[in-house]
Amino acid sequence: MEEKLYEIITDTYGTVFEPAPKTVKQGRLVASKEGLDKALSIFISNPSAENYNILTLAMLTYQYWVQKKVIE
Fold first, then answer.
1. Which residues are CB-contacts of 58 (< 8 A; sequence separation ≥ 6)?
2. Is 21 strand, coil or helix?
3. What is the largest CA-CA distance in the chain?
4. Based on the number of CB atoms within 10 Å of its own CB, is 46 exposed (0-12), middle (13-18) or buried (19 or more)?
5. Is the pTM above the cut of 0.85?
6. Are 39 and 62 in contact (CB under 8 A)?
7. pLDDT in the model for residue 51
C-alpha cells in the first residue's frame, strides 16, 4: 500500500529531488500535516490495524512534502 501511494505522489508531483513551486509545497504540507493529526487522533482512540495503516500512509505523505525541494 505504501509503495502504491508513493508511486501516485511521485507520478503527480515528481520525486522529492524535483522542485515544486513554493505555494504548492506549502499548501500540500499544511494539508498533509492536518491529515497526519487526524490519523493520529483516530489511531489513539481506536488502535486497530486499519487505523495503523492509515496512520502509516499519513506519515509517508507528510515525510514526502517535508523533504520536497522548492522552486523559489
1. 32, 35, 36, 38, 39, 40
2. strand
3. 41
4. exposed
5. yes
6. no
7. 96
Helix axes 2-13, 49-67, angle to 10 degrees: 30
- Summarize pLDDT for 10-65 with one digit per residue, the tens: 999 999 999 989 999 999 999 999 999 999 999 999 999 999 999 999 999 999 99
How far apart, in whole angstroms, are the C-alpha atoms of residue 1 and residue 67?
20
Q: How many CB atoms lie within 10 A of CB 15?
A: 12
Helix or strand holding residue 24 (H, E): helix 22-45
Alpha-carbon span 53 to 49, nearest angstrom: 6
